[in-house]
Amino acid sequence: MATSPCSSSGVSSSSSSGLAADAGLEIRTRSVEQTLVPLVSQITTLINHKDKPKRSDKTLQAIQRVGQAVNLAVGRFVTVGEAIANENHELKEEMSVACIEARRAGETIAQLTDVASLDHPESDSHITIFTDKTGVVKAARLLLSSVTKVLVLADRIVIKQIITSRNKVLATMEQLEKVSSFQEFVQIFSQFGNEMVEFAHLTGDRQNDLKDDKKKARMAASRAVLEKCTMMLLTASKTCLRHPDCESARINKDGVFHRMRLALEQVIEIVTDSRPNGENEMPPISIYSGITEFKNKVEGLRENLYFLSKENLSTMLEVILEHTEDFTDSAYTSHEHREHILELSKQAKMELEQLVSVWMQAQNQKTKDLMEDLEVAILKTCQCMNELKREVHSAATSLAADLLKYHTDHMVLKALKITGVEGNLEAVAEYTCKLSEQKEQLVEMCRLLRHVSGTEPLEITCIHAEDTFQVTGPQIISAAETLALHPSSKIAKENLEVFCEAWESQLSDMSVLLREINDVFEGRRGEKRVYLSLPRPGKHNANLKALKPVKLDTEEQAKIAKLGLELHLLTSDVDSETEKWEDQENEIVQHGQGMSSMAYSMYLFTRGEGLLKTTQDLFHQAEIFATEGTKLAAALQAFSDQVHNDDKPLLLLEAEKLIATCKQLQITAKASVQGKSATFTKVDACILKTRNVMTLLCQLLPLCCKLLRKNKAGNGCLKPAPPWREDRIRTGTKAHAPERRTETFGIKSLEHHVTNMTFLESK
């Protein structure tokens, strides 16, 4: 296993407690971070208790209960950690040391909080939290550090699973490359499909868990490549087997295998946070981010005239203006945009010269007049940069809109399919030239859009789109040449169809991306994007023909548009409710946001937009949505144990309603249908039931928020969480096959025990 740099984390609590985990540790996933939050909160509450001269018996008992609760929960936590160590020998030594430290720290805290039975807790004969607060702080630091180490070591097991899964996929890919018969290919591809599904789910969970948005975007891009390439690999390999002496078929197949290997490698780089040969990937700075940083520096002169040099500022502007040459040198930039960009670049240099002149004078003599002149120079420089940003944004987005509109009919692709079936090599050569020109236009469009994308994740999406056009263009050409050489070949025709669909899909994704970029520029929240993982494992039949999902026609699309609009309004309501929560990391909020995001993608489907292209995509999304709703219901039931008895029945009733509604949706989404009419009825039912779930969610979120505030305001604490049952480990072990035992003692198990450290908080 590649060594993971997930060597744990710096978690800090309120400054008054002086608590901080090992500064050398870094947490890279949300699950580890969120698991530590209750522990940090509980320990902080304990240490920050008010040192009152008179302490009631109730206060002393509360302090003792907290100390004992922490110790018991740590003991259970350590038991799980030790089980992980026993199952993973390469981590055993490190995990055992961390577990010993955690247990020792928990026992120390229990001893120092053993005050309820003492008449005089300050007595010299017994050291307590009142006489040795430093000791509690030390024990708390050790506890946080050791628990974090255990969690991060457990996280390495997840990374190991992904690496092992990748290695399986690579090994099977090597077998697929070497097969020489259809029968052997069918058997191996069936195994490969299941391995790819497993890899997709492991990496999907990891993607959602990552804290870094750039890594999330890179992971999404790599997984999208793998998803599309799986079908390409199938048809390209079958074409090669049918026409073993065809050079263009071999080139086509080799291109797919190469791209899949690169994507698999990038996933491993992301999860292990490493680069081959120790390289650091530093993508070139975009104009948007360059202007933002430049303006921040310029505006910083108001506070401090000496924090940077004029050379630094001049260099920053030079870099920005160099990047504007990507626009002015482009053959696809209009004459009007080119002239405006050149004029604004010249003006920006002049404004900076004026700013530097006033700035240098102000450093020598800080008079009122000079400071007013400096303010004017700052405003004029920033205004000029804003105009430049607006101009390049307009140039990039107007080009993109025009190109996407022009290529929406896919005339070149249609012509390639027709001339290929005719076996017309001359016409195919003519249209491949046109496709190459189209590819160059779209690649240039992606490069320019990257400059104005506004956020790093969107920049990465633009880079991914550019790569997709660069690679898919030549693959379509080789597939078309193969068909032209073998015009009667059904598999060659199917292969060309698959690559053309990938091209069309990327063009459709560009429309969504363009709207997102415009939303960021205009200060609106960007469109929500939900990644569609590979479908669940299914039986592969002998000829491996893919089930063709149904696409709705215009009339059917109009019928579901009304339902879709209602769904859109409900997602806005849910988003509004989740924003009201102080704790955005709360499990209820997280599930609510995830469900809103999925419902939004279903709304886009009703408009014929977004990433859900077919009815099969919609049904798969509905299943995931229903599963997320069930998880939310479980979170609500856990939350009900912490609210007052008066409020509990109402919350449980709502949770039961949610479970029932999600179950109905799941049954509908999984139901098998045949024929266009039945499929439309199923689409209608799925969206209707999704709307019902979202309606419930709109009622639940404000109710939970209200109950949470009520409990905090009422007594400063929630009721104790129910005690952990030891038989959960045994039950979990039985639930999984032997090869998946690492999941039994993973992050989820550890999360449960740290959550139980929130027994109660003293006032």
Automatic annotation (TrEMBL):
<comment type="similarity">
    <text>Belongs to the vinculin/alpha-catenin family.</text>
</comment>
<dbReference type="InterPro" id="IPR030045">
    <property type="entry name" value="CTNNAL1"/>
</dbReference>
<dbReference type="InterPro" id="IPR001033">
    <property type="entry name" value="Alpha_catenin"/>
</dbReference>
<dbReference type="GO" id="GO:0007155">
    <property type="term" value="P:cell adhesion"/>
</dbReference>
<dbReference type="Pfam" id="PF01044">
    <property type="entry name" value="Vinculin"/>
</dbReference>
<dbReference type="GO" id="GO:0007266">
    <property type="term" value="P:Rho protein signal transduction"/>
</dbReference>
<dbReference type="GO" id="GO:0045296">
    <property type="term" value="F:cadherin binding"/>
</dbReference>
<dbReference type="GO" id="GO:0005737">
    <property type="term" value="C:cytoplasm"/>
</dbReference>
<dbReference type="InterPro" id="IPR006077">
    <property type="entry name" value="Vinculin/catenin"/>
</dbReference>
<dbReference type="GO" id="GO:0051015">
    <property type="term" value="F:actin filament binding"/>
</dbReference>
<dbReference type="InterPro" id="IPR036723">
    <property type="entry name" value="Alpha-catenin/vinculin-like_sf"/>
</dbReference>
<keyword id="KW-0963">Cytoplasm</keyword>
<protein>
    <recommendedName>
        <fullName>Alpha-catulin</fullName>
    </recommendedName>
</protein>
